Amino acid sequence: MKKKTIELISARHLCIGLSLCCLLIGTYTEATAGTTDKELETNARQQSTKRISGVVVDGTGEPVIGANVVVKGTPTGVITDFDGNFNLKVPENSIIVISYIGHQPQEVSVAGRTVFNITLAEDTQTLDEIVVTALGIKRQARSIGYSTANVGGDEFTESRDLNIGNALTGKVAGVTVSGNATGVGGSSRVTIRGNASLTGNNQPLYVIDGVPFDNTNIGSAGKWGGIDMGDGLNAINPDDIAEIQVLKGAAASALYGYRRGNGAILITTKTGTQKGVSIEFNNNLTFNPIYDYRDFQEVYGQGTRGSQPTSQGAAVDTYSSSWGARMGSGVRAINFLGEEYDYVKRNNWKEFYKVGVTDQASLSVSGKSDNITYRIGISNTYDRSILPNANLNQQGINLNTTYNITSKLSLAVNANYVFEKVKNRANLSDGNGNVNATLLYLANSFDVRWLEPRVDSNGNELLPGDNVYFNNPYYLQYEKSNETNRNRLTGGMTLRYDILDWLYAQGQVTRDGYTLEFRQVQPMGAAADPGGYLNEYSRNFSEINLNYLIGANKKFNDDWSLGATFGGG
Questions:
Q1: Hey, which residues does 427 pair with through a beta bridge?
Q2: How many CB atoms sit inside 10 A of residue 45's CB?
Q3: Cα–Cα dist 8/228, whole Å
Q4: Which of 91, 169, 347, 471 keeps 20 to 30 A from 145, CA to CA?
Q5: Residue 39 C-beta-side C-alpha neighbours within 13 Å
Q6: Other beta carbons less than 10 A from residue 358's beta carbon
Q7: β-strand 211-213 against 533-555: which pairing, if any?
Q8: What does pTM read for this prediction?
Q9: Nearest 5 degrees, angle CA 28-CA 32-CA 33?
Q10: Beta strand pairing status for 391-404 and 409-423?
Q11: Which residues of the chain are modeled with pLDDT < 50?
């Protein structure tokens, strides 16, 4: 098995090496093209060369196939063959650098020598990488039977997406993220290694500081409309994240039970890292304009059969048709209000949509002493949608602390509380109330600002045409309203006792829960439902988990150690 693995790796490195050599030859030819023969002669006399050879092996004496042998400070180099051999022409008194993945690089002087036997030592720092599997259990990456990947918290701070799921895009191999274009406070969909079920939930299990975290999307859009109510990942402040670890496959999340056979995503929040008190403030302001306005024809305006509307009735009948006369300065037409106007191209998207603004501010106080490590962070997020009169306000508090009660007994407490209020989430799909549908289908000489009064003289919804499901976008945003209020508390306490220096016992209690209140108002006079209605409901969710764990990690010598865990919950 080891031999096969080496052959596969070497083949890949051989291809890369050959391509690199070709590139370097081209670069060298271009660089010396302007050098005269006399200058080349002078350079040759000043720097004589010699040919060296050798073999590269690992700590067990096995040849290292595909190792890089490069003259330090230059692009000149080769890779070792299937027997670990190399042959290279180098300048006198130069230094060669030998490197290979998973091994420590080595520098060797060629002064006075032509034959070399190089032994590369394993990079123990890479091989001994520690990962968290579940319930706080830490193991070496090479000792687990499934794939993992780590993403540092700084990468999420830079991406600044309100939904952490969307911020995972392109950061981990095998992780697919579908960011939903559902407006302010919308959800995301994350899958690891594709879908495991045609009908079930294919998203992974989320765990924050050892606490299983419910990420259910409470509301969604069907064929006849609906609202995306967001998911749990909206409640996580990027500035609080220390790292995210992705455990791939069913084996990765086995310790969390049957609920998740689709892998797990472990989120670790920041804690104090240095002695004394540290204060950190971060503010991020972003603007979100529309960058894709679609490509509409701009030659013919509202109307049919090559004619612009010349009466109020014709304008009402053709509000969504752009097959009229050629638009241009001096051409006149009649709109649905019976008013005459210039028959020219309108830019309704820029007139109606706004530039979205997202402001995220956070303040944290952290520290460390002999007995306690702590971090307390507060955050405030304001997100103004590109839709008018729609926004999100969110405040959060994050606590992560560990207290050493005695030299052997410690208590860890973490908590994350978030209050979120969202006003006027977008209505979606092919149902009554979709603002975007109106903007998409209005005739290209129809000015959306004609609809700004929102209601007619009778107090009813002012429509652009005769279709009661083709709504007034201003009426939808200012008269037909919805609001959600969500409070969420996630946290846990872990008590650990070190029985011996290699044996410990711990108990943990965790809680995740939230309350959601939803209110939607359709006023009287709405075109599709003139009687109006009021829709209110609330949802409560909570989950408490108790578990205990006994762990051992006994090291006998440099070659042998024993690790074992036993627990339940």
A1: 227
A2: 8
A3: 47
A4: 169
A5: 5
A6: 19
A7: unpaired
A8: 0.71
A9: 115
A10: antiparallel
A11: 1-46, 126-128, 143
DSSP string, 383-404: EE-SSTT-EEEEEEEEEEEEEE
In the block, residue with structure tokens 């209050």:
419
If you search the block for the tokens 């092919």, which residue do you land on? 430
pLDDT tens digits, 263-310: 888 888 998 877 889 999 999 999 988 877 778 888 999 999 999 999
- Tokens matching residue 506: 């711990």
Edge to edge, the sheet with strand 221-222 lists 221-222, 225-227, 427-428
Residues 6+ apart with CB under 8 A from 331: 308, 325, 342, 343, 344
Q: Which residue in this structure is represented by tokens 């638009």?
A: 327
* 435 token code pair: 């603002």
Instruction: Name the residue with tokens 């050493």.
Output: 404
In the structure encoding, which two tokens stand for residue 130, read together?
A: 């520690």
Cross-strand partners of 131? 139
* Residue 133 pLDDT: 56
The separation between CA 194 and the C-alpha centre of its own chain, rounded to angstroms, equals: 17
Task: Tell me which amino acid residue 46 is.
Answer: Q
Instruction: Give the number of other Cβ atoms within 10 Å of residue 14's Cβ.
Output: 16
User: Do 423 and 292 form a contact (C-beta atoms < 8 A)?
Assistant: no
Tell me the per-residue pLDDT of 362-380, one tens digit each, with 9 for 90 and over: 999 999 988 999 999 999 9
Number of residues in the chain: 569
